[in-house]
Recover the amino acids of this structure.
């Protein structure tokens, strides 16, 4: 599944009980349609996202950034302490493409060494259709 949206806040890195790191962030997706009366209706959907491949990507996932994500969705349901039933959808991201300015950067599992630190490999695409 692919989605395109803007980050609602800066990404955060969390550590699981098994000592694995995950990057968590939220994306807002705007959609619009015309109702039966011909009025344009604007609708915003929010996706909670997780990225398990590298915590380094959190440095560039900042509020307002436009991203294109590839991944899969999982559903979760639980009962809150108040007894209320709750549910959520999480988008498990496998590829992140950061759109900004005139360049698009894709982040994948590849790494390179630069100044003795690991960084995420970024490949700019010069010929964008928009």
């Amino acid at each position: 599944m692919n989605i395109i949206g803007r980050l609602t806040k800066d990404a955060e890195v969390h550590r699981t009980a098994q000592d694995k790191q995950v990057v968590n962030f939220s994306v807002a997706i705007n959609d619009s349609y015309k109702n039966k009366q011909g009025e344009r209706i604007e609708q915003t959907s929010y996706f909670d996202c997780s990225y398990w491949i590298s915590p380094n990507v959190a440095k560039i996932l900042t509020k307002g950034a436009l991203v294109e994500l590839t991944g899969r969705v999982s559903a979760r349901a639980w009962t809150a302490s108040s007894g209320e039933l709750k549910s959520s959808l999480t988008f498990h991201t496998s590829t992140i493409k950061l759109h900004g300015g005139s360049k698009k950067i894709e982040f994948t599992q590849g790494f390179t060494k630069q100044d003795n630190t690991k960084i995420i490999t970024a490949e700019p695409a010069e010929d964008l259709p928009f």
Remarks:
- The longest strand covers residues 85-100.
